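Why do we care about 3D structure at all? Because function follows from shape, and shape follows, mostly, from sequence. That is the central idea of this module. The next example makes it concrete: a single protein chain, its amino acid sequence, and then its structure expressed as tokens.
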Amino acid sequence: MSAKPDPASLPCSPLDETSGLKYFPRMLGKIRLHAEGQLWEDLHANLGKGSDGAMVEFLHITYEALKARVSHGGTDEDILQWCQEQTRTLNDTDKLVWNYYTVKLGWNDQLTPILAKRKADGGLSDRDDVQTIAHYIDVDEGRLA
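And the structure:
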């Protein structure tokens, strides 16, 4: 973790939603900020990977196709609609499964060791309340104390 970022260089929380789908607005925010040269450098390494990669796989699109679509403009809702037109329409169960994955990621799963390392690197090892990746991100980026 580097110095605390300028809030203008950060996308929204991973728990924010577009049309009931968590993380999607964060991924689009990262794409937009990166294209503008404004994205916090700590976030560059995982562009299109990690949760971004999981999200595009869930949507059955490629990250490059999504980046190209974002570059044409439109609201998050417009872009999510485009994604669904390319592959499949998400139903309420799809969104429920994805959202559950997003809010629990890092809690007793394959990413628990990565979360522990990030907490240690960020001086948060003593924070037992930070139990998921989403919560860590919100603390790390200054949205939560």
